[in-house]
Amino acid sequence: MVKSATPPKAGMSSERRNSLFKLGLLLGIILLVNVVSRYLFYRIDLTADKRYTLSQATRNLMGDLKDVVFVKVYLEGDLNPGFAQLRNATADLLDEMRRYSGGNLEYVFINPSEDPDEETRKALYRQLYQKGVQPVTFEERTAEGMERSFVFPGALVTYANEEMPVQLLKSQLGVPREQLLHNSVQNLEFEFANAIRKATNPLRPEIGFLEGHGELDTLEVADIANTLKSSYRLKRVSINGQLDALKGLRALVIAGPDSAFDEKDKFIIDQFVMGGGRVVWMIDPVIAGMDSLKSMGGWMLAPARERKVEDMLFRYGARVNYDLVQDLL
Fold this sequence. Notes:
alpha/beta; elongated
């Protein structure tokens, strides 16, 4: 009697089914992990100083949110490796902050250069600049030579009617770009937490920028306005003889007026000061533009500006001199 050494076909089919079952189970687990990871975020911080773990203060801030905070991040598009690292670090931070927000933090990444229409792009660039999101220019070597481009490494945090800018890249003179990006990544939590805290705090004092006497417009005071915006609410105000025009202001900025103040406006400003208000006067006492100096071959006439506020300033102990200061250069 001869016995066959070939195993039964049933046994071979069972082994194949078992292998296919294990393979299908492994693929199912991988697919499930990918699906779940889209809706859940968790990061394990293995650093000794827990540099990638949110502080308890930030967790409390996110847990106390009463309404949705919406963040628009304008660092998106075709980025070099350094800015891509900053973009990814920002996304990771916002994901972790959202975990503690109870659903009250949403964000989106926007490429400000995406629109093919040049005028539309420029309009968005101007809008971002006015709101405090500063562009950064950089040069890179390509096959065609040196190429100059710029990005907006910033964000806008919106809560109710309040909007706060966040500058993701902190500029420091003399610091190499790699170190600058590293420092900016380390500072992300503070920047976003600080902006959210200010946007959700309705008790910030209000500062007014006066207009109606030829003062500098919003673009010309954008730098100081963006700096003040982080701690104060800002508004443009006109007096026009209204006694309550300055009511509620902590301070008033009068930036570069070029026409005279009437007596009623001066009286209202004086009463504002007497009531504890503060006024920042930015006065150019003479008309002396650089364009005029260049066009006249290095000399010029500098007539005085008549604002009729010198008597009021003199009562405060200040005197405006009609002098010119020449730069050494």
